[in-house]
Design brief:
globular; 12 strands; 332 residues
Length: 332
């Protein structure tokens, strides 16, 4: 199946719902089941979706008070960051902003990108009755990008119109879960897969390829899925206090439990060697911390044992440019 990213997927924690909805009269008149991370994962699995990019829903975080809106935006964005931290292989997140408070929105945007490292920002057409064309929102408007998603509008006539008007390379896949009834949301992907309006290339672009160009960290997930690459993930003495794998990488490798070894040379670790042999592959792509040590020692021993080795030049680093170059020259 094609790599699939749901860019229209709502995160609706209780604290957001209590702050923005009246209990018996929810916005939009739709009473939703309780939100949980487990329910999101269950839906993704049922629908055949690889990654969901979460966002809050209407009415946004601003219901009249700037201070309260800033606090609610911060809480929602920090929750999104935690969801991504725990499962970056399955989730991304769009930040919410306390518009029409432009100063607060710009401050939160900086925090969401620079500190939380969220993947983008979601802007509603209006915030508490103030539309994006209002002069107070001019600074925030510069962050808009005109892409369209297929949530609630995935029919063949709509796809045909989007191809003619904006081009299908500007169309992303979305479900509007959990606002769309679960069984209908699950079928969204199936409809795109079966649509006679789309070529194979257009289908792949809509389902996930375009999203991977907009959110670069998704590109690695797409490659791993497309090529079915087995991964052997190894660390050195984390149990003894050495640093673990960087969070950005650990998330991509969430399904591959790291083998914590005591040797600098991975090839000297029994579990690592067994794991490599269990893949049945004779061509190895190696990323490492130190070019001249971690990569070179492992690569040289693998070459000696008859493997083909391909170090990823920009995914390893030496203690100096000279050491990096020398390490590569030893194995290439």
């Amino acid at each position: 199946m094609a790599f699939t990213v749901d860019v229209h997927h709502h995160i609706l924690p209780d604290f957001f719902f209590r702050a923005t909805n009246e209990g018996d009269q929810p916005v939009g008149g739709i009473a939703l089941p309780p939100w949980s991370r487990a329910s999101m994962l269950s839906f993704l699995d049922d629908a055949g979706i690889d990654v969901a990019i979460t966002s809050i829903s209407t009415p946004g975080v601003h219901t009249g008070d700037d201070t309260a809106a800033r606090a609610l935006a911060r809480r929602c964005n920090e929750l999104a960051a935690v969801v991504i931290r725990d499962r970056p292989d399955r989730f991304g997140g769009f930040a919410c902003l306390p518009l029409p408070d432009a100063d607060g929105a710009l401050a939160e945007l900086a925090y969401a990108f620079d500190d939380l490292r969220l993947d983008g920002v979601v802007l509603f057409s209006n915030a508490h009755g103030t539309y994006l064309g209002d002069p107070r929102c001019t600074a925030a408007e510069t962050f808009r990008r005109l892409y369209w998603d297929s949530a609630a509008s995935r029919g063949d006539p709509v796809l045909r119109m989007l191809r003619d008007v904006v081009g299908l390379d500007r169309v992303l896949f979305g479900t509007d879960y959990p606002y769309l009834r679960r069984d209908l949301a699950v079928s969204c992907r199936e409809h795109i897969e079966a649509s006679p309006e789309l070529t194979d290339g257009e289908r792949a672009a809509v389902l996930g390829a375009t999203a991977a160009t907009l959110i670069p960290r998704l590109a690695s997930l797409r490659v791993i899925k497309a090529f079915g690459l087995p991964v052997v993930h190894s660390t050195v003495n984390v149990a003894a206090g050495q640093g673990p794998t960087l969070p950005e990488l650990a998330g991509l490798l969430a399904e591959d439990k790291p083998l914590d070894r005591t040797t600098v040379n991975s090839w000297e670790d029994v579990e690592f060697l067994q794991a490599v042999r269990a893949t049945g592959r004779r061509k190895l792509i190696i990323c490492a911390l130190w070019t001249e040590v971690c990569m070179a020692f492992t690569a040289l021993d693998a070459l000696r044992d008859g493997y083909e080795v391909y170090p990823v030049v920009d995914a390893i680093a030496g203690t100096s440019p000279e050491a990096h170059r020398a390490g590569l020259e030893r194995v290439v």
